[in-house]
Amino acid sequence: MVLPERLAQFNRVVTNRVTGPFAGWLPGFGIVVHRGRRSGKEFRTPLNVFRSSNGFVVALTYGTDTDWVKNVLAAGQAELLTRGEKCHVTQPRLVHDESRRPMPPGVRQFLGLVGVEDFLLLKRG
């Protein structure tokens, strides 16, 4: 089970507006800056992001079919604002991992409760 679409809609309308101003500064949070595939419009999506050995990993709590994931995959790159730093990320790659190895232990357990098994790996570029 991935988080329901109704929760995603609530987060887009409410939570993202509340967390947006500080998501680029707090540990475990970030803002991915990406362009729409059709519109070319710039979007800023707050999310949970964690450092990995060569970049970052994002748990796809709403699955692989979200617009921001499709936009980043189509472009092959994005900007990531995290911990007050702006990083260019490239080579986005979807990974399905039932053990949730890319995540820190506490986060791994929470993601297991909600059934998240898909991740987006982003290489620092």
From TrEMBL:
InterPro entries in UniProt? F420H2_quin_Rdtase (IPR004378), Split_barrel_FMN-bd (IPR012349)
Q: Which domain of life is it from?
A: Bacteria
- Pfam families, per database record: F420H2_quin_red
Q: What is this protein called?
A: Nitroreductase family deazaflavin-dependent oxidoreductase
